[in-house]
Amino acid sequence: MEIIEKSLVSRLQKDSSDTKYINLLKASRIVGSSQLHDEAFHGLVARKAHLTRPEAHIMGIDLLYDVMIHGTGVGGKQKPLRMRGL
Q1: Measured on CA atoms in the order 65, 26, 21, 58, is the torsion positive or negative?
Q2: Has this prediction a pTM greater than 0.90?
Q3: Relative to the CA of 59, which of 2, 12, 68, 86 has its CA 20 to 30 Å away?
Q4: 21, HSE (Cβ side, Cα atoms, 13 Å)
Q5: Phi, psi for residue 48 in degrees, rounded to 5
Q6: Three-state DSSP class for residue 3
Q7: Cβ neighbours, 10 Å, residue 16
Q8: How far, in Å, CA of 9 to CA of 54, rounded?
């Protein structure tokens, strides 16, 4: 199973579609990878396109809030909620 997971993660990281970071977020939750989660988070913050309602739903309110705050520069260098243990 680990080989399949690595292969899938590799393909997701090479993806160039608009849903790349949402897919990485889902994969990070499935495999329990904080590295993938962080990559997805930073990709979503840097993404210029607006999130769709289904994407926001997948992300959850805590991560959506963090992306909104870090994406607009509001809140300074505050750590994401997940990293603050909330």
Answers
A1: negative
A2: no
A3: 2
A4: 22
A5: -85, -25
A6: helix
A7: 5
A8: 22
Phi, psi of 31 (to 5 degrees): -90, -5
Q: Is 24 in contact with 34 (CB distance < 8 Å)?
A: no
Give the span between the Cα atoms of 5 and 3, in whole angstroms. 5
The token pair at 5 is: 């997971």
The angle subtended at Cα 21 by Cα 56 and Cα 63, nearest 5°, is: 40
Q: Length of the chain, please?
A: 86
Residue with tokens 């809140």: 75
* CA gap 52, 50 in Å, rounded: 6
Q: How many CB atoms neighbour CB 43 within 10 A?
A: 16
Report the C-alpha gap between 22 and 20 in whole angstroms: 6
Q: Please write the tens of the pLDDT for every residue from 26-55.
A: 888 888 888 888 888 888 888 766 777 888
